[in-house]
Amino acid sequence: MAEFSVVLVEPKYDGNIGSVARLMKNFGYSKLVLVNPPEIAKDGRSMAMHARDILESAVRVDDYSKLTQDYDFLVATTAVLATDSNSRRTPIFPEDLSGALETEGKIALVFGREDHGLSNEEIEQCDLIVTIPGSREYPTLNLSQSVAIILYELSKAKMRRDMQGLKKLRKIEKIEKDVLLEKFDDLAGCVYLNEYELHNAKKTFRQLIGRAFISGREAFTLTGTFRKAANKIRKKQA
Fold first, then answer.
1. Are residues 64 and 137 in the same domain?
2. Across all residues in the chain, what is the average pLDDT?
3. Residue ranges making up the domain that contains 211
4. Average pLDDT of 12-40?
5. Largest interatomic CA distance in the chain
6. Would you give the distance in Å from CA 107 to the centre of its chain?
7. Does 168 score more than 80 pLDDT?
8. Using CA atoms, how far apart are residues 74 and 55, in angstroms rounded to an integer?
9. What is the pLDDT at residue 213?
10. Same domain? 122 vs 213
């Protein structure tokens, strides 16, 4: 699995560094790299809250180009999209980073300066560019907000991958869905005598299941409930 680091290039305010450290702690990331940072004083430590250990263990680098030596993959972030004359800034979106979870090696998530981001030369040294879609009138986010969105997308993808192995969260398979619909149809047939009402009930339930994306366990429970209900109704009607 990939090992991620958050890299802040020449951050201006130590409070922003502290906020980023706190976000990293929230999402389970611990490796912070600072390129030519200011001194981390009271504001930085205060904003970090319970993530001061990340501040204390942060790696300080005085030359941006050293990143290419220390990491296998550099991901630049930018709010400035590509134009015909600036093909170097052709980005992907944060959710597209999920594929990086399956790679091996060290990956740096590189965030630029608060006032003017990363230069074209710095971006050119990166392997990939990611952008957070925003308003064309004011697309630039606060540094810590940008970090939060990127780490959220990575954490969401990781959790989704980990949850796929849980039986109770496994998505319903076709054979389970077919059995579930069959048992509902059987139950509906015991309840509705009017053909129109029966057809409408079946159609509504199919649409509901199509939108719900229920799990295999939920389908199993509903199938059993419909089967038992239909059997009880038949016994009373007998």
1. yes
2. 88
3. 169-237
4. 96
5. 85
6. 17
7. no
8. 21
9. 75
10. no
